[in-house]
Amino acid sequence: MLHDLPAQVKIVALVLFVGAVVATPREAFWAFGVHAALLVGAIVIAKVPPGFVARRLVIEVPFLLFAFLMPFLGVGERTTVLGLSLSVAGLWGAWTIIIKGTLGLGASVLMAATTEVTDILEGFERLRLPKLVTAIAGFMVRYLDVVVGELRRMRVAMTARGYDPTWIGQAGPIASSAGSLFVRSYERGERVHRAMLARGFDGTMPSFEQVHVTPKAWMTGTAIPIMSWLVAIVAWVIR
Amino acid sequence: MHIPDGFINGTTSLGAGIAAAGGIGAGLRQAGKKLADRQIPLAGLAAAFIFAAQMINFPVGVGTSGHLIGGGLAAVLLGPWLATVVMAVVVGVQALIFADGGVSALGLNILNMAIIAPWTAWLFYKGLRTIVPRTHKGITIAAGVAAAISVEVAALGFVAEYALGGTGGAPVSTVLIAMGGVHALIGIGEGLITAAIIATVLAARPDIVYGAGDLAREEERQRPRVGRFVLVGVGAALVVAAFLSPFANSSPDGLERVAQDTGFSETAQATPAESSPLADYGGSGIGTAVAGVLGVGIAFGVGYAALRVAKRTGR
């Protein structure tokens, strides 16, 4: 169901949901419980495998490490938990980062999992983002394959010449060949662009379907974020 | 460097978002003026390259992960205005399509990586260019050092945001030391990689390095003008022919000498021009000078005509 929603609805929903999470006062534990339940509900409805979401959450790990250190580094009033002297302010900070960061990331992962990249870009175009920005973003996403493909070809060429890449040993050669990677992908990009011009490219990507967003789609898409905003407001009022 | 949601409070994030939007708007206006259609795909390619470079993400101890930011690279390659737009696109796509960096922290991330980093790099680059030699090597060094500094300043931008609205309990001084220290290390790597990339691009395609545009224009200016070159050349030839040829040694030149010595000069046929008034460069004195001047004129005329014909027939 989430897959079929127009991309611009999902973008608005994502921004609204993350905004609600960030605006929720950190003392309202129950509110974060409701936010998490809403997000998990959306993930279940969208039939996104939990393992996929978990793998994508790994990106957060460095910040979680920072969060875990905060109670030890924090200053001010201290409390004792399990025999450890911890800073109260640091504990609050760690809690805020872990819960808000994870909820925000989870929502972003859900959108990435249920929406094609080109649809997201088209969604932004319909949300009236400046044309230059969507054009550059569109070329960027398409040229990513060019850059990665060129890198693969260079690596094959290096291997063919007796270079034996080990995981960490790749860093040096990749850094030193980054310049040639740039020039090579740039020149390939020039050829791609000329080929596009030869096929009638006039600066805008043709859109194959005219998506008409029904009020029902807007209502379905924003139902969860509106609920999370209600939760955030209630949490502020009863605080 | 990608701040997640909840790290900095909502008010500060919102303020940073407004500042970021203003910066991007200015960048769009300035870059859009000069940006030809042809350059949009190439800006997209630069964005893709920086995105790919940023994906190589490694944890550097506490607080954040280290990766190339690319702000300095973008500024030197594309100029600061377009670099702002391109970096903002990279950071925006990361947040909204690849879930890297919080959606609510997008303004903060754009401020640090798309505005502070490229502009710091650009200002230091322009400053350093006044000290370093005006060569490719000078550009490479200036770009590398500027990129290294830009990482540190972007990290300080984060510390300032943390001081304004950080939700963590860690004191600002601790964050300052941690971020400053870690990013000094990342900055060295960033500087080296930026310098390596700029050096290669300058060697292969100096025309696509925005920051080296002044060097290209200078080379253009220093290139000798064809008209002046012809004038100076013909003038020198005339001076030699008119004033120096009378003093020419009348001894046979190398080929004539060999011909006489080996005795094949007798086999040489008298050319039809033997009877011309200028044969064997006239007699002596004024006659030689006139013969020389006439010879220069004829040689230039024939050569010029031949080149014109060659040019018209398309080489």
Question: Mind explaining what this structure looks like?
Answer:
The complex is a heterodimer of chains A (239) and B (315). Chain A has 239 residues and is mainly α. Chain A contains ten helices and two strands, in the order ααααββαααααα. Helices cover 72% and strands 3% of the residues of chain A. Chain A has a two-stranded antiparallel sheet. In chain A, α1 (7-23) packs parallel to α10, α2 runs antiparallel to α10 and α6 runs antiparallel to α7 (131-160). Chain A is flat. Chain A starts with 6 loop residues before the first helix and ends with a helix. The model of chain A has no long low-confidence stretch (mean pLDDT 80). Chain B has 315 residues and is an all-alpha fold. A two-stranded antiparallel ribbon of chain B has the order 1-2. In chain B, β1 (58-59) and β2 form a beta hairpin. The interface between A and B is large, with 83 and 67 residues.
Q: Which SSEs are present, and which pair or pack?
A:
The complex is a heterodimer of chains A (239) and B (315).
Chain A: H1 7-23, H2 29-45, H3 50-57, H4 61-73, E1 78-81, E2 84-87, H5 88-114, H6 117-126, H7 131-160, H8 171-176, H9 178-198, H10 215-237
Antiparallel strand pairs in A: 1-2
Helix pairs in contact in A: 1-5, 1-6, 1-10, 2-5, 2-10, 4-5, 6-7, 7-9
Chain B: H1 10-34, H2 39-55, E1 58-59, E2 65-66, H3 71-78, H4 80-96, H5 106-129, H6 136-165, H7 172-204, H8 213-222, H9 226-244, H10 254-262, H11 286-312
Antiparallel strand pairs in B: 1-2
Keywords:
heterodimer; A: 239 residues; mainly alpha; two-stranded antiparallel sheet; 72% helix; 3% strand; B: 315 residues; Arp2/3 complex 21 kDa subunit ARPC3; 70% helix; 1% strand
